[in-house]
Amino acid sequence: RKEVEQDPGPFNVPEGATVAFNCTYSNSASQSFFWYRQDCRKEPKLLMSVYSSGNEDGRFTAQLNRASQYISLLIRDSKLSDSATYLCVVTLLNDYKLSFGAGTTVTVRA
Amino acid sequence: GAGVSQSPSNKVTEKGKDVELRCDPISGHTALYWYRQRLGQGLEFLIYFQGNSAPDKSGLPSDRFSAERTGESVSTLTIQRTQQEDSAVYLCASSFPGRGYEAFFGQGTRLTVV
Description:
The structure holds two protein chains of two kinds. By secondary structure, chain A is mainly β. Chain A contains no helices and eleven strands. Chain A has strands spanning about 5, 10-15, 20-25, 30-40, 45-50, 55, 60-65, 70-75, 85-90, 100, 105-110. In chain A, strands 2, 4, 5, 9, 10 and 11 form a six-stranded mixed β-sheet that branches. In chain A, a hairpin with a 4-residue loop joins strand 7 and strand 8. Chain A is globular and about 45 Å long. By secondary structure, chain B is an all-beta fold. In chain B, the strands form two sheets. In chain B, strands 2, 4, 5, 6, 9, 10 and 11 form a seven-stranded mixed β-sheet that branches. In chain B, a hairpin with a 7-residue loop joins strand 9 and strand 10 (about 105). In chain B, about 35% of the residues are buried. The interface of A and B includes residues 49, 87, 101, 102 and 103 of A.
């Protein structure tokens, strides 16, 4: 079983729609969670950290469910510029290693 | 520098030649990572450094791949006797524990083996 698994998508949504997707992780000792965004032929960039209580950054909301071992990302009022691949990243306590999911592709259409 | 710097940005090499890829992390970042990304694929973990030590080399695909880091700064990824399947973008990232392990990536080195 992979350490981090994501639905590859693609999720094709119209502008203004809400889109949400999950990422599951296999190691219950996982401690830190992040969502990264990767545009085509570019390097990944940090979108947001995911905190235990859930957190919001503008139109983006991240949630953590430790019991079921998944994190989620919700994008409200989608913009064309939100089209990208979203990467889930997980680390263990006191371990620097970043485990990446394969990514979820989101395409927002006009 | 302000960000992670990788060089060269592009490298075309002949099959069988050795290549060295360089990464300059953000100053003060103690963790450094190398990943490989083939076209249309996800990030494949290669190795990470904690300081100058590499506690996890499990991702290196073969003994043709090696990496080192000196002075808790610059890292070099070396690929010997390159093969066509080594063609990919090689991404380096660094992080500082005080920031909750948020990692910042360089723009990558696009390696093409012909």
